[in-house]
Amino acid sequence: MTIERIESVTYGVEDVELCTRFMTDVGLEPVDAGRSGATFRTPVNQFVRILRADDASLPPRSSAGSNVREVAWGVGTQAALDALAAELGRDREVSVDAGGVVRTRDESGYGVALRLSDKVEAADPPRRTNQLGHVERRNEGVTPYGRARPLRIVHAAWDVLDAGHEQAQRFYLDRLRFRAIDTVRPMGTFMQCEGDIEHHNLLLCHRTNALGINHIAFEVHDIDEVVEGGNYMIAQGWKESRRLGRHNLGSNVFRMFQSPAGGRIEFASDMDRMDKDFVPRHWEKTPQHHLWMLKIPGDSEPH
Ligand SMILES: [Fe+2]
């Protein structure tokens, strides 16, 4: 088993204080915060790091302004980590720091780190639900979440340039052993890392023909938490960038917000899991974006 999950996401930002407030409102647990940066942790021990954009420890920028500068992937064993580092070293500069973290850049220039996975199991059972003939909750009501408390960082979506997008994808597929679950020729490729069954841990999207992070997705428990987490964000003054819906590819319920740290963040729940029995799909035309999306009176076309 090789890459199992996203281990951390590191942003370089113009306004550390603003981005710290944003990530706190997203519901991440702050473990360290100061003028030069902040660190947040998920319940399964992944980290979101906020650093000043001019911090010398960051990989170079791929675009102006605040953005993700590095996604670190968690690898299952030291032997697998060593093998991946050796493979990457065949054609690009690779560094290894004192903590054993391997760093390089992908075909788009994005910072890629590989490190031993440091997973913690989250003991957080799902809410009990009721349906005719299927009763899990009896003699008790539902307690509102009030705000999101993400379970984990579930996927990263990078925008890549249209020119060379196939090489950009091949880097992850051929060199880092990701599996393409849905390849959408006009749009991008949804990829799963080898040690997970998530519909996608990584999306490389060339539809916008731009460089930079498109979004980082945080898994929450269920649709209630997607809605309530989004409502809380709006109450704190953050701007929604895509209203509530359920995707077609991946089936995840989503709600998205513009992030001052770069790109957007997504609250996601109930995503598809694809194991080795699933036959990857290829799409010549981009399929419908969503199965449904919240309609607002007077708004004929969901945004
Ligand atoms: Fe997403």
TrEMBL record:
Natural source organism: Pigmentiphaga humi
Name listed for the protein in its UniProt record: Glyoxalase/Bleomycin resistance protein/Dioxygenase superfamily protein
Domain of life of the organism encoding this protein: Bacteria
Residue ranges constituting the VOC domain according to the UniProt record: 152-270
Keyword Oxidoreductase applies: yes
GO function terms (MF aspect): dioxygenase activity
InterPro entries xref list: Glyas_Bleomycin-R_OHBP_Dase, Glyas_Fos-R_dOase_dom, VOC_core
Keywords: Dioxygenase, Oxidoreductase
